[in-house]
Amino acid sequence: MNFHLILFLAFGAVCVGGAINLLAQRHPINSALSLIAVMAALAGEYLLLGAEFVAAVQVIVYAGAIMVLFVFVIMLLNAGEEEETKGSRVAVLFGVPGMLIGGVLMAWVVLRQSGTEAVPIGALPGHPADIAQLLFHDFLLPFEVTSILILIAIMGAVVLASKPEPMAGKVH
Amino acid sequence: MVPLSYYLLLSGFLFACGVAGFLIKRNIITIFMSIELMLNGVNLSFVAFAAHWHALAGQVFVFFVMVVAAAETAVGLAIIIAVYRTRETLNVDQVNLLKL
Fold first, then answer.
1. What is the pLDDT of residues A82-124, one digit of tens each?
2. Closest approach of chain B CAs to the CA of A167, in angstroms?
3. Number of domains in chain B
4. Average pLDDT in the B26-38 region?
């Protein structure tokens, strides 16, 4: 067991635990907090892969901005506990074993195919300068298109979340 | 040295958890968070493959995924607020009409 593998397993355990906790919790605020843990641990995995800038952006944008939006909406809407619903028995009967078999098969294939190749720590240092060279030179058009996407998303969010005018057609 | 397959397995597990949450959760906000979990799983495999193939473009694509996720979150949460305003519920089982 080298140090790299131990770090990977530690961050991976936080990821797996957080993802399972997201499914197990009934209150959305608990799910949101465990998702933040997953994202922070993923930033650690990115650091192990040498993607420092991606790790920083992951913490700032994902665990910071996006999850704050989620927590804000949960508190704004005063979301309560999820109601228990009876799942279908067919899904439990066939879904759980099917998922287990599928997961084991996939793990077997993946481990068998590329089990020998290893990614060393900091394999590809993602310096911001190199990423900027790619982003603003090779991927300039997609980058500009995303700005339009963001603009449309801002306008859509404002239109959707704004209060409807009191006179505007109440149907019921 | 961590094999690439370990990263791929972790990525696949996160994606599967996202799919499972999307299917079994009943709260619309939690369903939305499951989608974010799926996107995170995909991002991890992007970065792992970028390191494996020494292609920095994989890391650039992660930024595009993050931009799309941010736009999707902004619009989606606005839709959730609009749904809650008209239905007074966050349970997707009770949101079964396109129009009130």
1. 777 776 778 778 888 888 898 888 888 877 765 556 666 666 6
2. 15
3. 1
4. 93
| Residues 6 or more apart whose Cβ sits within 8 Å of residue A111 | B3, B5, B9
Give yes or no for residue A13 having a pLDDT over 90: yes
CB distance A45 to A11 below 8 Å: yes
Q: Does A66 touch chain B (CB under 8 A)?
A: yes
Does B100 map to a domain? no
pTM for the model stands at: 0.88
**ipTM exceeding 0.90, yes/no:** yes
User: What is the CATH number for B28?
Assistant: 1.10.287.3510
Residue pair A55/A129 in contact by the 8 Å Cβ criterion: no
What is the Cα gyration radius of chain A?
Answer: 22
- The nearest alpha carbon in chain A to B3 belongs to A118
Largest CA distance in chain A: 68
**A104 neighbors B74 (Cβ within 8 angstroms):** no
What is the length of chain B?
Answer: 100
**A146–B32 C-beta distance less than 8 A:** no
Which domain range does residue B35 map to?
4-94
Q: Report yes or no on B99 lying in a domain.
A: no
What 3-state DSSP class applies to A144?
A: helix
Neighboring chain B residues of A146 at a CB cutoff of 8 Å: 64, 67-68
Fold topology of A1-82: Four Helix Bundle (Hemerythrin (Met), subunit A) (1.20.120)
